[in-house]
Each structure stands twice: as C-alpha cells, then as structure tokens.
Amino acid sequence: GDSVTQMEGPVTLSEEAFLTINCTYTATGYPSLFWYVQYPGEGLQLLLKATKADDKGSNKGFEATYRKETTSFHLEKGSVQVSDSAVYFCALTLKTSYDKVIFGPGTSLSVIP
Amino acid sequence: GAGVSQSPSNKVTEKGKDVELRCDPISGHTALYWYRQSLGQGLEFLIYFQGNSAPDKSGLPSDRFSAERTGGSVSTLTIQRTQQEDSAVYLCASSPSVSGANVLTFGAGSRLTVL
Predict the structure, then answer these.
(1) Are residues A86 and A35 in contact, defined by beta-carbon separation less than 8 angstroms?
(2) Euclidean distance between CA atoms B29 and B3, whole angstroms
(3) pLDDT per residue over A2-47, tens digit each?
(4) Are the beta carbons of A11 and A108 closer than 8 angstroms?
(5) CA dist B72 → B51, B52, B86 (Å)
(6) How confident is the model at residue B18 (pLDDT cuts 50, 70, 90)?
(7) Which distant-in-sequence residues (6+ apart) come within 8 Å of A12 by Cβ?
(8) Nearest residue to A32 (alpha-carbon basis) of A90, A108, A105, A77
(9) Pair B86, B18: CB distance under 8 Å
(10) Closest residue by Cα to residue A14 from A60, A94, A81
C-alpha cells in the first residue's frame, strides 16, 4: 500500500552542522510531497512542499528535492540552529478520489549549542 | 476563524467514560481530517470529511470511535467507553481541498488521558 518511510530518530546535532533526514515513499501514481514540522509544544505546520518530479521545495534554509527515480524527498539544511529542534514529518498526498494525506512516523531532531 | 481550534486542550477521564473532542476548522475549508498521535509515535489517520460526508473512515480503530461534521464546519470526535490505550493527542486539520497540493493546517490538539 501507499506509505512513507523516514530515517529513525532521534537525531542529535551540534549547532551549524549539516542536516539530512531521509524520506522515501511508496505510492501509486504521482503524489505531491511535503515536510511538516512540529516544534515543542506547538501544532504541526507546513515546512515545504513539491508537487512534481524534480521540483525543489525550500523554506527557512531547509530544502528537499522530489526525486521520482529514487522515490525520495530527503530534507536538508546546511547549518542547523538550536531553534530547529523539532519533530519533522514527511508526507504525501495522493491524487485519488480525494486528497488523502499519509504521514511518515516523524524524526525527532535535537540541536545542541 | 483564523486558525483551527480544538477543544478541550486537555481532558482527563476515567476508563469507561465517554468523551467528545471538538474541532472548529478554518472558515471555508471543506476538507477536515482527524489524526491521533500517541507518545513517541507518528500520526495515525482516523477519518476524513469532505463537507459533511466522511468518504474515508478506514482509520477509526474500533466501533467505540465515531465522528460527525455539521454544516460543513465543526466536527466532533466521540470515543465511547474509553480505554487506557486511547490516551493520545488527537489532532484535527483542515484544508481548502485544492487537489494536488493539499496543505493541511493543524490545530494544537486535544490531549486525552484515560486513567
């Protein structure tokens, strides 16, 4: 069935380190892909999205490129900050009879000074 | 409203009691979703509404769970005869349902604790 897989967490990095959170998906057809973020004590919010192959989504220094050939949407940031500590969720929307949204299990990131 | 509102924000109940969780979506958003987030777990899909209809109830864990939406707006998730394993944060999200780039706006969640 349709699903999203993310790298296991938690991930702990030092400030200014490079971040990669892997995300791969299985889906029929051509989904839209998203990264949502949940900061401590807050609700989930959209971080970035890409709607077709080779699109790059970007926001707040984060980037992810829709790779159809590898069915991946890895999240990257060149230099993380303490304020980036959060749980990151990869998700997809299927263009079926309705906009079903499937989330990955989430990856917890802690950035230490 | 400006955002998705959920109430109560916290609910502690005794095993066997019924609870109702409310979601007030963004005005004009036709799509509404309920998810459950257990401690240390991801997001478990429960149910989806398009207007007042629920075309996908496949995620409801048991017949103790039900949900309705009235007037294409407010939704209520009801859990009957609560069990300890129902303890979780229940998240509601809405979207304008623009197919192909369906961005969800989430509420802050209702944290349910069943003693």
Answers:
(1) no
(2) 11
(3) 889 998 789 999 999 999 999 999 988 888 999 999 998 888 999 9
(4) yes
(5) 5, 5, 27
(6) very high
(7) A109, A110, A111, A112
(8) A90
(9) no
(10) A81
Collect all residues from B whose CB is shorter than 8 A from any CB in A: 4, 31, 33, 35, 41-43, 45, 48, 50, 55-56, 91, 93, 95, 97, 99-109
d(CA B36, CA B33): 10
Structure tokens, B102:
């369906």
Query: Is A101's CB within 8 Å of B101's CB?
Result: no
Instruction: Give the model confidence (pLDDT) of B65-100 as tens digits.
Output: 999 999 889 999 999 999 999 999 999 999 987 565
